[in-house]
């Protein structure tokens, strides 16, 4: 019996080897892609072979990443694998949980304590260096925290609350005012606070958080009212791309526009956004060209930039520095009516002298605004403020 099956096994193995060989040859002539529209990310490029990279093993590692990213029919293979996993009852794909009610929720991993300590110590040092400048910190909880009821049964995710609590306690002890929006968001889960296919919070959630920040900061929100306006219903987020799940689901992205009245319209229309790295200026917070792309969340300022400056005709001389990740992008327009200038720095992409920037722009307030995922994993701010 075994002898009869052996030729069949050899045949299957031979055909599989031929298939891999054919795909590899096709891959050589298929060209190199720079971006994956499906995964919404840049793809690895062919690494340069040097003696140092070969000896260290980096070349082999980089070439493997390049081969994996550029493999022909990659998107189809991902969809096939995801479909098979779902048939087998798997509820997690590439760090993304397939949640209830159509939600895809990114897993919150246990942070590296040294990384967390490095960020907190850098913020402590920055507060000590600028004692007379009011500083605020808002660590935005992600969907895995606020929408726990949407997680699949037995989902394993680190306790985000404990890390936020520890961070806020430390920052409060340094004299940094903390803006804890967790209760506000939990009380408003009847609203759509997070996208179902993306890791970002929605503009509605950002507005709720802004109103709490305004209360802490003492801003008069009665002077400015908004109307919510959908700008697209074709948004496909990064989590659907990352997981390969629910790739056919499209969502609505909203912006909040100031209602036309004498208190707000002129300030909003007259604000100038300067993209320093790109050396361009615009009179709008919104990049409508991004609505034609898969990642429509980039409608807010066209995505992330190392340095932006928002200048308004507001007579108040308050000048705010916002240190942020992409969660802040849909939050920033709400700040415009209250500050003469808003200097926006994303430490992941900024390579200038932050202390010099604060002095040059006469910054008199600082806001740290990050998602919990970025805050507890990123080392950019600590590196940026090293002496």
Task: Note down, in words, how this protein is organized.
- It is a single chain.
- Helices cover 37% and strands 18% of the residues.
- By secondary structure, the chain is an alpha/beta fold.
- Strands 7-6-15-13-14-12-10-11 form an eight-stranded mixed beta sheet. Strands 3-4-5 form a three-stranded antiparallel beta sheet.
- A hairpin with a 4-residue loop joins strand 10 (272-275) and strand 11.
- The longest helix is centred in the first third of the chain and has 28 residues, at 2-29.
- It is globular.
- Mean pLDDT is 86; it is low at 263-269.
Give the secondary structure arrangement, pairings included.
Blueprint: H1 2-29, E1 35-36, E2 41-42, H2 51-56, H3 58-70, H4 74-87, E3 92-93, E4 96-98, E5 104-106, H5 113-129, E6 134-140, H6 143-146, H7 160-173, E7 177-178, H8 182-186, H9 203-217, E8 226-235, H10 238-243, E9 251-258, H11 265-270, E10 272-275, E11 280-282, E12 307-311, E13 319-324, E14 341-345, H12 354-360, E15 365-371, H13 372-375, H14 380-384
Parallel strand pairs: 6-7, 6-15, 13-14, 13-15
Antiparallel strand pairs: 1-2, 3-4, 4-5, 8-9, 10-11, 10-12, 12-14
Main structural class: alpha/beta
The topology string of helices and strands comes to HEEHHHEEEHEHHEHHEHEHEEEEEHEHH
Strand arrangement within the widest β-sheet reads 7-6-15-13-14-12-10-11
Helical stretch tally: 14
**Main sheet attributes: strand count, strand direction, barrel closure:** 8 strands, mixed
Model regions low in confidence, pLDDT < 50 over at least 5 residues: 263-269
In one word, what is the shape?
globular
Q: Whole-number average pLDDT?
A: 86
N/C terminus separation:
74 Å
Strand content: 15-25%
Q: How many β-strand stretches?
A: 15
Helix proportion range: 25-40%
Rg over C-alpha atoms, rounded to the nearest angstrom: 24 Å
Assembly classification: single chain
């Amino acid at each position: 019996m075994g002898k009869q099956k052996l030729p069949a096994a050899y045949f299957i193995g031979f055909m599989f080897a031929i298939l891999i060989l054919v795909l590899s040859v096709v891959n050589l002539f298929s060209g190199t892609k720079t971006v994956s529209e499906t995964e919404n990310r840049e793809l690895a490029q062919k690494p340069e072979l040097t003696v140092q990279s070969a000896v260290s093993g980096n070349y082999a590692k980089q070439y493997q990443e390049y081969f994996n990213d550029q493999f022909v029919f990659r998107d189809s293979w991902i969809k096939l694998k995801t479909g098979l996993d779902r048939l087998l009852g798997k509820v997690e794909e590439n760090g993304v949980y397939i949640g209830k009610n159509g939600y895809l929720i990114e897993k919150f991993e246990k942070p590296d304590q040294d990384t967390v300590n490095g960020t907190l110590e850098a913020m402590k040092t920055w507060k000590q260096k600028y004692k007379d400048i009011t500083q605020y910190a808002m660590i935005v909880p992600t969907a895995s925290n606020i929408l726990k009821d949407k997680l699949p049964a037995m989902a394993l995710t680190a306790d985000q609350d404990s890390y936020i609590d520890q961070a806020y306690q430390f920052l409060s002890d340094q004299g940094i005012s903390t803006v804890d929006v967790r209760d506000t968001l939990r009380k408003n889960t009847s609203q759509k606070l997070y996208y179902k296919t993306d890791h970002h919070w929605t503009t509605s959630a950002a507005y709720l958080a802004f109103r709490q920040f305004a209360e802490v900061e003492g801003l008069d929100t009665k002077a400015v009212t908004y109307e919510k306006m959908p700008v697209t219903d074709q948004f496909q987020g990064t989590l659907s791309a990352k997981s390969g799940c629910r790739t056919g689901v499209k969502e609505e992205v909203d912006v909040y526009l100031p209602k036309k009245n004498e208190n707000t319209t002129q300030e909003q229309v007259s604000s100038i956004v300067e993209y320093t790295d790109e050396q361009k200026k615009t009179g709008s917070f919104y990049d409508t060209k991004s609505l034609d792309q898969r990642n429509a969340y980039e409608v807010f300022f066209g995505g992330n930039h190392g340095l932006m400056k928002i200048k308004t005709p507001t007579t108040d001389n308050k000048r705010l520095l916002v240190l942020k990740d992409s969660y802040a992008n849909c939050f920033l327009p709400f700040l415009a009516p209250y500050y003469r200038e808003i200097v926006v720095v994303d430490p992941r992409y900024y390579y200038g002298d932050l202390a010099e920037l604060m002095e040059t722009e006469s910054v008199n307030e600082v806001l740290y605004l990050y998602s919990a995922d970025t805050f507890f994993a990123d080392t950019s701010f600590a590196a940026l403020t090293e002496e």
